[in-house]
UniProtKB/TrEMBL annotation:
Pfam families given in the database record: GIY-YIG (PF01541)
Alphabetical list of SMART domains matching this protein: GIYc
Organism of this sequence: Spiroplasma turonicum
InterPro entries: GIY-YIG_endonuc (IPR000305), GIY-YIG_endonuc_sf (IPR035901)
Phylogenetic placement of the source organism: Bacteria, Bacillati, Mycoplasmatota, Mollicutes, Entomoplasmatales
Protein name as annotated: GIY-YIG domain-containing protein
SUPFAM superfamilies, per the entry: GIY-YIG endonuclease
Span of domain GIY-YIG: 54-143
Source species, domain of life: Bacteria
TM ranges: none
Amino acid sequence: MNAQEKFNIIKDVKTKLKQELIRLHEAYYYKIINYLKGLKICIDYNLIKKEKTVFSGVYLMYCEIDNEIIFTYVGESIDLFKRFRQHVANLNTTKKKYKKMRSLGASEKNIKFLILTFESDQNKRLLLETYYIYILRSKIYNLNTKLLSKKAKCDQNHGNMTSKLLNVNKLSIKLNVFVKCRNKLCKQIINLYDFNGLLYNRI
Ligand SMILES: [Zn+2]
């Protein structure tokens, strides 16, 4: 199998529900989640209630029942614990996203949060959010509906950029996520895997 064929499978695993790829996908997804669990700070409901300090960053919200991952959701916030409390409180509302989470079995007891990275700069947070959404992208598990926030900006302050997962090495697999400015005079491209300001946050 050549690199392009391998890359096509990676894309399919993340974006399609192909029966023959489901077991591969599950194995891949549990590997990522377990890796992140071992590396990042895990927050459960009891901690959310107590913590009053303001921490800004990117997080992973996930629901786990009987050691099975039910769903994941990546987000960012200027005040992580406030956002965590909002998510838990919203589980009892009729908002679409939370109705879906509840229908999958989510409750305050089985919802957990991993702090993926601390970051006070909003634009860096938005780009890092995209970086993690691509890593955790899944038709089976992930509930994120957007890959990149419209608020994320290039160096010239243009918003509404586009994003794409690419393999940058023809002979082997080297994944990169690129964010591109839509402004015709600007067209700045930011490689999220090579961007200096984000390097320290790489997993
Ligand atoms: Zn631009």
